């Protein structure tokens, strides 16, 4: 039996960055908001006891339980997709705050080129550069950087981002709210090398704050202690901007927001009398097994992109993408990232075991269309960076070519090089291809008997070409930094679900200005259901050469405007 709860104005499915932003803005506007979170409550106090690397970095305490829900994966359609049984290529967050708890905090804005990539590429190079005949499906986002800029600014001020203007980025309406982090010796070496090569290095925009900051909502974020426990960890000091120290308390302070943990949403409920609306969501209490119906005037899917896609698909909202006919929009344009870099071996030692998740320097000379692609066999590129995030021993064993993977020589090389190696790499954009997409698996289900998401994905020639190019550029920087020996990355062939690469998955619920090629409009409102919004990195029409969180945050603020306007219009009609 399903228990029906009291109706609310807005229900969010997931309470991380996107759910927290929607909740805070809607609650401040006077709307009653319910946040359904399938994980448990948590906050800064939970991380103040011990730096437990085994618990968090190895056993993935903050991540999704793969025994209850996972995805299946294959490279091509003629392969059998198999379940991902443990965390590998990407780390899916769980509990209050989601992946916004364990992120590093590298907070870049996507470039103006990203949002109008098809138009700008065709204008500069001609339509043939888009490689439509090779299966690439590059499209504009239905919104421009200039339209999204105020929302970027709002997110950065909410999170207190520490940084400095990027000469190769989009125009800014204001400076970052806090100054950049400190420059360590390795960062200064990178800066000098990049300047010597004619590039434009800047300090990385960071959600690990350089100084204490009170944001516009009155929430205080502390100054970073450079303890190096950011990636895969929650911040013990409240110095890494996360939903739990920013938007979630801001929403709660209004008295209009409630979080209901241990609530796994399994279906978006449709209005039987009106095929343009939804009525709420059905969820299961993960502790008792009870089923509930949460009615709402507005439903916002704010979970990770795989789950957002899954809920639309199992609820039969929208048309599934078919790679044979290319009909349908739900599940298309799944993209990831590929990395091109090099390691330098130095005689001197560096304190690489210290740092912060977003302590780094970078330049964008090979990102987006900031360089001429006329004679190159790829588009886009990546942000080139060096970071000092805190190299963990054992997990970080950089050795020279030819070193055995075990034994006395391996141990000697590991100890010798642990603090004597520096890595420079570009995180490179990937572009959509007709054969890369999301679907539902016909064989495997989760703990609630709901089909798993099936990922069909492989790197393309575009990806391998941009990787090879940026590997060479990174090696030149490392050599200029004075490395005695440079070890280049190998160019990959096929994508694999292991090892860890980045939690920068995008696509599947793409935004746009045409329902024939997108799932939602540029307010992230579903084309088929007026009171349903879907927000996250799934809205990206392609991936960029950056970490996605700032762009996700900007889209969430844009979405919040749409939610509030729709809810208020709906109230007036009633």
UniProtKB/TrEMBL annotation:
<feature type="domain" description="Glucose-methanol-choline oxidoreductase C-terminal">
    <location>
        <begin position="432"/>
        <end position="556"/>
    </location>
</feature>
<comment type="similarity">
    <text>Belongs to the GMC oxidoreductase family.</text>
</comment>
<dbReference type="InterPro" id="IPR036188">
    <property type="entry name" value="FAD/NAD-bd_sf"/>
</dbReference>
<dbReference type="GO" id="GO:0050660">
    <property type="term" value="F:flavin adenine dinucleotide binding"/>
</dbReference>
<dbReference type="Pfam" id="PF05199">
    <property type="entry name" value="GMC_oxred_C"/>
</dbReference>
<dbReference type="GO" id="GO:0016614">
    <property type="term" value="F:oxidoreductase activity, acting on CH-OH group of donors"/>
</dbReference>
<keyword id="KW-0560">Oxidoreductase</keyword>
<feature type="domain" description="Glucose-methanol-choline oxidoreductase N-terminal">
    <location>
        <begin position="145"/>
        <end position="334"/>
    </location>
</feature>
<dbReference type="Pfam" id="PF00732">
    <property type="entry name" value="GMC_oxred_N"/>
</dbReference>
<keyword id="KW-0285">Flavoprotein</keyword>
<keyword id="KW-0274">FAD</keyword>
<dbReference type="InterPro" id="IPR007867">
    <property type="entry name" value="GMC_OxRtase_C"/>
</dbReference>
<dbReference type="InterPro" id="IPR000172">
    <property type="entry name" value="GMC_OxRdtase_N"/>
</dbReference>
<protein>
    <submittedName>
        <fullName>GMC family oxidoreductase</fullName>
    </submittedName>
</protein>
